[in-house]
Every structure is written in structure tokens, then in C-alpha cells.
Amino acid sequence: MALKQGYIHVYTGNGKGKTTAALGLALRAAGQGLSVTMIQFLKGETDIGEIKAASALLPNFVIKPTGRRGFISQEEPSVEDREGAAEAMELASKIVHDGSTDVLILDEVNVAVGLGLVPEEWLISLMESKPQTMELVLTGRNASPRIIAHADLVTEMRAVKHYFNKGVKARKGIEK
Ligand code: ATP
Ligand code: MG
């Protein structure tokens, strides 16, 4: 099974659901026999539900975490953050060049662009050079106007309420 025509999605905004939306799409695609690769920018943690589920249950859905395990400070990305972003970019470029997956998800790539870890120009050129049949999904807050202009589908998650503001921290099985 392969797509006849692939499109570019952007899930952005301050509300919860961007990564979850991409994972829902990945589940659907994998179920229909498409191959899915999710490269996680700024997320080196491996003890997360989506990685466990994909590796145990979905052989055609591969998730590649990159970067540091902990929280990345908005102010000053470390050498480790830069190395992680470089690794993620290299892998994404290779997959786009080879056309070796049907659905490519670059999770949090918009945030990496915002932090200056990923050049906007690199992402635009990736969007322009993707194989016609590849679906490309970009997530993360603050998608830049140029990224939005280059996409075919853009959804902005708007935070109406979030229990984070009641002091609820990320929970295993729900946020990670
Ligand atoms: P999820 O991975 O749960 O789909 P997301 O990808 O939309 O969330 P991110 O911007 O990647 O959200 O944020 C990562 C973490 O911050 C998640 O645990 C998410 O639940 C939480 N979060 C999302 N929106 C908000 C918000 N408005 N206020 C506080 N925390 C939030
Ligand atoms: Mg996210």
C-alpha cells in the first residue's frame, strides 16, 4: 500500500494535542499498511508510551528520539541539543532523499526551528523536496509563517483549559 499523493500537515498552537494528533494519524496509517517514521526533535526520552507501543505492536511504525532526555531551556540550547537536532535533520534528510517511508512525522520540529536549532531554510527545502507520494507531518508550537505557507493542512490547537495550570504534571500513559 502506498499513497498516490502525499500532503504536508502542520499541527501547531498552544493547546494540547499536537503530538497526539500525529500519533493518531500514525496509528491509522500503520493499520492500513503504510510505513511511518516519527523523528522526535528535542526529545531523547525512550520510556514513553508511543515508543513502547510502536516497538511492541507496530513493526511499520518506527520512532526515533533525538536530543537530551530532560527539559530543554528556552534560552540557551546546549551542545547536546545541537547535536541532537543535527542527528534528527540528517536522518530526516536521508529518509526524504531515499523515500524510504510513506509517512514522515517531524515531532516538535517547529520548536527546534524557533530555538534556532534547525534552520527554517532547511525545513522549507525539505518540504519542497519531499517525494510526491510522501505524507509529511510537522508538529510543535509557533510554526513560522513560511512553514505555514508551505503546508497543505494547518491546524492550530488552542488552549481553552489545561490541568497543568492546576499543578498536574505530565503523567505516564497520558502525556508520555
Ligand atoms: P501532547 O504530546 O500531549 O499531544 P502537545 O504535543 O500538543 O501535547 P507540546 O507543546 O508538545 O504539546 O507540549 C508538551 C507537553 O506540554 C505535553 O505534556 C502537553 O500536555 C503539555 N501542554 C500542552 N499544552 C499545554 C498548555 N497549554 N499548558 C501547559 N502544558 C501544555
Ligand atoms: Mg508535542
Description:
The chain is an alpha/beta fold. Helices cover 37% and strands 16% of the residues. It contains six helices and six strands. The chain has helices spanning 18-31, 49-57, 79-98, 109-114, 120-129, 145-150, and strands at residues 8-12, 36-40, 61-65, 103-107, 135-139, 153-156. A six-stranded parallel β-sheet has the order 3-2-4-5-1-6, with helices on both faces. The relative contact order is 0.25.
Q: How many strands appear in the DSSP assignment?
A: 6
Under CATH, the topology is which?
Rossmann fold
Strand order, biggest sheet? 3-2-4-5-1-6
Which quaternary structure do these chains form? single chain
Please tell me the CATH architecture by its name.
3-Layer(aba) Sandwich
**CATH homologous superfamily grouping:** P-loop containing nucleotide triphosphate hydrolases
The separation of the N and C termini measures 30 Å
Low-confidence stretches: none
Query: What's the tally of helices?
Result: 6
How would a crystallographer describe the biggest sheet? 6 strands, parallel
> What is the SS-derived class?
alpha/beta
Bound small molecules, by name, code or SMILES, are: adenosine-5'-triphosphate, magnesium ion
- Rounded to an integer in angstroms, the radius of gyration calculated over CA atoms is 15 Å
Proportion of residues in extended strands: 15-25%
Mean pLDDT: 96
Q: What is the highest CATH level, the class?
A: Alpha Beta
Question: What sort of overall outline do the alpha carbons produce when their principal axes are compared?
Answer: globular
User: How many domain modules?
Assistant: 1
Query: What helical percentage do the residues reach?
Result: 25-40%
What's the SSE pattern? Answer: EHEHEHEHHEHE
